[in-house]
Amino acid sequence: MRSNGAAALLNAFQGLRISASTPLRQLRAPVQRQSKVLGAAQLLQNGRAFSTSPAMMGTWLEPSLNRKKKMAKGRPRVATGGSTKGTTVIWGDYGLRMVDHHRRISAKSLKMAEDTIKVRLRGEKYRLYKRKCCNVGVYVSGNEMRMGKGKGSFDHWATRMAVSQVLFEVKGRIHEQIVRDAFRLAGNKLPGQWEFVKKGDAPVVGITKLDGVTLEDLKRPRKQVVPQELLEASPSTTATDVGSTPASSGSS
């Protein structure tokens, strides 16, 4: 009786034992795959598909830079020597472009414009692209400090916006008039004047749109130069020496 009871108890313990290692591998593989899928989803959520900048460098409204290190605010670089960079729609179907003058725009204004677009396009299937990054720190002294007491403390982040550059782009299955209305509301929140552009519109050099005009035409001199063939075909004029009188006057 004791041997039978011991054998039954041993069989019961052997049934509870995890004997093979293959089921562990089979159980471990789905967990690893699930973790990889979650990691890829997090990277897609944090990453910006329209830029090569990693997410660890900061957001487009507040980069991961040292605020205590003073930096020059500078002026926006306006490329007038033949560059069309940043003046056309690249990733989206519609865009919002500045038309009046270059300036610095604070991150607060950009965030307000972004929220305005998202509220207007709520419920639509779209994707919003931001073309600028607030990487310029603005430091102010304030009224409590006298002149000559330093540059001041950090106040806000800003971006340099040149004339004729695109700030926002929208892509998706959405009507053009809805996007126009959203960009109109966003332009009212931003300083300056803005215009609505589509993908495929002509680029801009300075304030000149290349609509029927090429860069070669802009680089040519404005003064009309007479071709060499016309100069050779024109009749030669006789030049008279200084102080000499024509033959007709001497005969008379």
From TrEMBL:
InterPro entries, sorted: Ribosomal_uL16, Ribosomal_uL16_bact-type, Ribosomal_uL16_CS, Ribosomal_uL16_dom, Ribosomal_uL16_sf
GO cellular component terms, semicolon-separated: mitochondrial large ribosomal subunit
Biological processes, Gene Ontology terms: mitochondrial translation
Disordered: region residues: 224-252
PROSITE patterns xrefs: RIBOSOMAL_L16_2
Alphabetical UniProt keywords: Ribonucleoprotein, Ribosomal protein
GO molecular function terms noted in the UniProt entry: rRNA binding; structural constituent of ribosome
Keyword Disulfide bond: no
Ranges of Polar residues composition bias in the record: 234-252
Family: Belongs to the universal ribosomal protein uL16 family.
UniProt xrefs under PANTHER family: 50S/60S RIBOSOMAL PROTEIN L16, LARGE RIBOSOMAL SUBUNIT PROTEIN UL16M
Name used for this protein in its record: Uncharacterized protein
UniProt source species: Hypocrea atroviridis (strain ATCC 20476 / IMI 206040)
